[in-house]
UniProtKB/TrEMBL annotation:
GO molecular function: beta-phosphoglucomutase activity; magnesium ion binding; sugar-phosphatase activity
Species, as recorded: Rhizosphaericola mali
Protein name per Swiss-Prot or TrEMBL: Beta-phosphoglucomutase
Cofactor(s) in the UniProt record: Mg(2+)
Record-level GO BP terms: carbohydrate metabolic process
Catalytic machinery residues: D8 (nucleophile), D10 (proton donor/acceptor)
Amino acid sequence: MIKACLFDLDGVVVDTAVYHYKAWKKLANSLGFDFTEVQNEELKGVSRMDSLKKILAWGGVSKSGEEMNALATQKNEWYVDMIQQIKPGEELPGAKEFLQKIREAGYKTALGSASKNAGIILNNLGITNLFDAIIDGNSVTHSKPDPEVFLKGAEAVGVQPNESVVFEDAVAGIEAAIAGGMYSVGIGQPEVLTKADIVVPGLYDMSIEKLKSLEKISK
């Protein structure tokens, strides 16, 4: 029986990808090369440091560990400045409504995000109170597809992994759900999120009925 819903943040609850892209592009440009939106897609669900390693490799740039820490900090400062623009009502369509609906139905909710700024974003949106637990990049040591962030989310709300549903827009996130023995709902394109139990275009297309239909799948 499903008892909890675990949500990724970017691309599921809110679209901050554009801010990540702008901040990474600014960093790449400062190092003398460009960074494309196509490359940015490959960073979905990937930690900040792992993202930086990928970008430096794309640009053919080598940096020491100390220099990489400074670059990651700089990118984050630009990103945090940008996300201060986020206001209540900027959630992705249906996200707030679905969160309210499942909480009223008695489901536990947790956030499972690689972002270290998840708290800032939820506060700016005014929806922190819709989550029973927040597990973010400050709470985990392994990036998706490692299931750590979701396993900690299930533990935080007192349910077993096989009583949890993960909502994810990234392939790495779906793989993390599978690795954790959890149900998965892909947010996006079925041809991309092929391993998800079901795929919907957005939380506006989710319902309690669809949530319950997952229970027919054995985990």
